Write the structure tokens for this entry.
Amino acid sequence: MNRNPKEKFARMEIRLKPKDKERIQRISKQCGLSVSEYVLQRALGYTPKTVNPDAFYHFYGKLCELMNRELSPETEAAALQLFDDIYAEFLDDRKQPAAEIRKEVMLWQPPDSGPLRAD
């Protein structure tokens, strides 16, 4: 709200692609700010912090629960499934299939024994 009643707000209009507008709206919502406030802060050199969604706390609770379990193949499988779920919820914008992700990860990981692959 305007703190000085004599001071009037100036108005700016910009043109942008619909996908850019949607992205700005999504990010501003994640930061808990209006689009105007978000764009103003970014233009003035500030980097607003995002507000964690409820899903973050849901996954955090599940992860803490898994960390308190005794290590077993079942616990490891549950942790891997949870990581897949976290990835799908927060990181995967292109919705890459889980099997494809696992295949990529296997390429990154060194073998359990024997010499490293020479690529």
